[in-house]
Specification:
The structure is a homodimer.
Chain A: H1 10-17, H2 21-28, H3 36-49, H4 55-62, E1 67-73, H5 76-81, H6 84-96, E2 102-108, H7 112-124, E3 130-133, H8 142-148, E4 152-156, E5 167-168, H9 175-186, E6 192-196, H10 202-216, E7 223-226, H11 232-244, E8 251-254, H12 257-269, E9 279-281, H13 287-291, E10 298-300, H14 303-317, E11 333-335
Parallel strand pairs in A: 1-2, 1-3, 3-4, 4-5, 6-7, 6-8, 8-9
Antiparallel strand pairs in A: 10-11
Helix pairs in contact in A: 1-2, 1-3, 2-3, 6-14, 9-10, 11-12
The structure holds a DNA duplex.
DNA sequence: GTGAAAGCGCTAACAT
DNA sequence: ATGTTAGCGCTTTCAC
């Protein structure tokens, strides 16, 4: 019962305005049926008292917490490596905050059990109205769980196997990789390697397949190397292996920028010139890529727009009337910088 | 009134266990005074129904939301550049989650007004029990605001002007920069530049002063360049300017890794060899620094430990009895890698 | 157009 | 040791 000092309740406002509780409630929730004069008095009283409805009381009464949950299960080092989420979240925030919604964030280690338990707990405690889901997985268990829990959720990405899970994604999710293939081909590369991320991610598989297909149409078969994690150490090891091959690739495409940068570092350390002897492409367009020397050619996706779009979609599901326009998410696009160049003469 | 289907209340549990509401409450909150037999029955009933107390009801009743707030006011591009916060948050989460606490995160743009408004709103709505504060600022307005609002808060960093604001910090916050000065001196560097962050941060000023003092003791006066923001573009521009000086520095120390990497890129692009002709030092020890070529010499601080310590301290303030030991935060430490080397002959 | 009254699910003081 | 009861602050019928 700490600090209840000074905190006004709806009754204080009603008293000050000389009206009843329900009048205050109606005014503040814009439910009409109140004379302009009374409404003005109420608003003035509320402002004077700096009264804001208690979230707990509202939630208890109406089963709406105005809070959405997001649980991210990634090891700390992967989190440290990649500013991916922060941008997405800040995009979502732009939509949530104006409507009075908050974001309950849980950053777990890479522990599927704990992850599921967290969803369950948040739902059972009724701490949130719905969830934002990221990193669509093959055989994703979250959709079923959340349906079970009666929770609304919007996935950022492509649901596995056409699951009806509501989701948002870029207007042209594969354009970036397709353009990458084209770009490399145009530069004369024929021995191309693709270092893909963990195979349990839907986008990993889709991008790799799109890339392979695109090359195959030009009669080129890329070397595929799969990392078990989105991991810089693995990127380095794989790159070293690739560069030791007899017919080593003249271009390597990585699943994300961090891996690309690690791979590029490995190549440079081995005395291989980028892009002179080896071209490197990333994915995500992290700011660091632009400042690196040589600057990284990569695929950009508008993470803030994706986060915002997901928030809007979720708010719609939650019955919010003014979540704003469902924003367009720009296509992914290849950003050509310095790390790709003409294939070295055979 | 959505989805109330299936959600059991405390009364359902009481009924199933054949006891009263209060008995259930006492058992679940371990408040004693209940026979072992009854307690067992209650627990079983709760488990069977998968009952978890409604957060809203608990909050309304007891004024404890079991939720802590964190508001971060940074522009999106700075967020994108720097995985700093994610690690700190995941450290805090390790402490919060086991005690049933959640984290309400707000990622705002760099807008002081909006930032203050967010604190106010969160406090007035009673959405959180307290706050975690980051990035201690000169003349920090948050301490007063939160005291005004009757909110508990723990600052991560050093409060401005010995404000009594509760805070946590590394065991030896300046050891890293001191060791950096020593390291550079040992390598024979005498023309040293220090690219500092925005001057409104307490740590920026402290680190710079510690660095300058340490060098001065050896009769060396560093060139100071101040960036207005923690910004890669500025880092690059400043580096270019520095390298154009008649007696250009042989070593540059940056306020953080992202700036250091950007600066190193600028130097390399200008054809300057690192570390042959220029040594570079960062701060933070982001993973990328390790994979970069040359790998970045930098100061490491254990962000996860800092986040965890802050969470423990806050939980203490909130009267939690078992927030765990107040963890030690390891000293900051210099990690010497490839980007620093012997000063080139004069 | 406005007010009175009934809870939402829980905890804690008070009875028994 | 256990049960009864009175709210926490709000929204929402339902009377007036």
């Amino acid at each position: 019962m700490r600090e209840n000092v000074g905190r006004p309740t709806i009754d204080d406002v009603a008293a000050l305005a000389g009206v009843s509780r329900s009048a205050v409630s109606k005014v503040m929730n814009e439910r009409g049926g109140i004379s302009a004069k009374t409404a003005a008095a109420v608003r003035e009283a509320a402002a004077k008292l700096k009264w804001v409805p208690s979230a707990a009381a509202v939630a208890l009464r109406g089963a709406r917490t105005r809070s959405v949950g997001m649980v991210i299960a990634r090891s700390t080092d992967l989190l440290a490596a990649d500013p991916y989420f922060a941008v997405m979240i800040s995009g979502a925030e732009q939509v949530l905050a104006p409507l009075g919604y908050g974001l309950q964030l849980h950053l777990l280690g890479d522990d599927p059990e704990a992850e599921m338990a967290t969803y369950r707990k948040l739902a059972r405690e009724r701490r949130v109205d719905g969830f934002l889901l990221t990193e669509s997985r093959i055989g994703d268990p979250r959709f079923a769980l959340l349906r079970d829990l009666g929770q609304q959720a919007v996935l950022i990405g492509i649901p596995w196997q056409d699951d009806p899970q509501p989701h948002v994604q870029s207007a042209a999710p594969l354009r970036g990789v397709l353009d990458t293939a084209r770009h490399l081909l145009d530069l004369g590369h024929r021995r191309i390697a693709y270092v893909s991320g963990p195979d349990d991610r839907v986008h990993t598989v889709q991008r790799r397949e799109a890339f392979v297909t695109a090359l195959r149409e030009s009669g080129v078969t890329p070397t595929i190397a799969g990392a078990r994690r989105f991991d810089s150490l693995e990127a380095r090891t794989i790159t070293e292996d690739l560069l030791r091959m007899p017919d080593r690739p003249t271009a390597i495409v990585f699943a994300n920028d961090m891996m690309a940068l690690a791979g590029m570092g490995a190549a440079q350390r081995a005395g291989i010139d980028v892009p002179g002897s080896l071209s490197v492409v990333g994915y995500d367009d992290l700011p660091i890529g632009e400042w690196h020397y040589p600057a990284l050619t990569t695929v950009a996706q508008d993470l803030a727009a994706i986060g915002a779009a997901a928030a809007v979609a979720l708010l719609r599901l939650l019955g919010e009337e003014r979540p704003g326009q469902q924003p367009d998410i720009p296509p992914t696009r290849l950003v050509i910088r310095e790390s790709t160049g003409t294939a070295p003469p055979a």
